[in-house]
Amino acid sequence: MRNMFEKTQQRLKKNNRQWLRNNPKSLRLLKRFNCFDKGLLAIARGISIGLFFGLTPTVGFQTLLVLPCCLVFRANFPLAFAATWVSNPLTMGPLYYSWNRIGDWLLAETAETSGSDSTLSFLLAESEQLILGSLVFAIPACIISYWAVVIIFRNRAP
Which of 51, 105, 111, 112 is found 20 to 30 A from 147 (Cα to Cα)? Predict the structure, then answer.
């Protein structure tokens, strides 16, 4: 188990370094805004931001959304980047299904039945359910992860 964890950690570091090499302007911004800070609060903010965007239907845009948030909140970017991988090809199907079901359940009472059955109205309704359902997961995960990191690692020596 430990060997698997170490291999995954090495792969994450390699992928992060490769992305940063391919994006030198982003690297300069991250260094200037102290987004590689190893402080407890920066780490907690990074994990929190990464989980938030990892648990929303923003696949393909997650890094583009995480980067400015890390700059604004001075969060640890490598950890935020790695935390977005909570939604990956293996977990995407179950996540999208559960987000859609939760959103459907929350919007069931407010849904209006209209005579229009166009594809666009269907897609908009499904997108609305998906986004609302994902926020039901993402917001608590964001808050819980921040405080869990702070509480668990607060008393540990640097």
Answer: 105
Per-residue pLDDT reduced to its tens digit, 51-67:
999 999 988 888 889 98
pTM of the entire predicted model: 0.76
Closest C-alpha to 70, from 37, 23, 40, 25: 37
Q: For the chain, state the CA radius of gyration.
A: 18
- The 3-class secondary structure across 41-83, one letter per residue, is HHHHHHHHHHHHHHCCCCCCCHHHHHHHHHHHHCCCHHHHHHH
Residue 69 burial (CB count, 10 A) = 18
Report which of 138, 132, 136 is spatially closest to residue 107, judged by C-alpha positions. 132
Q: Are 133 and 100 in contact (CB under 8 A)?
A: yes
C-alpha of 8 from chain center? 18
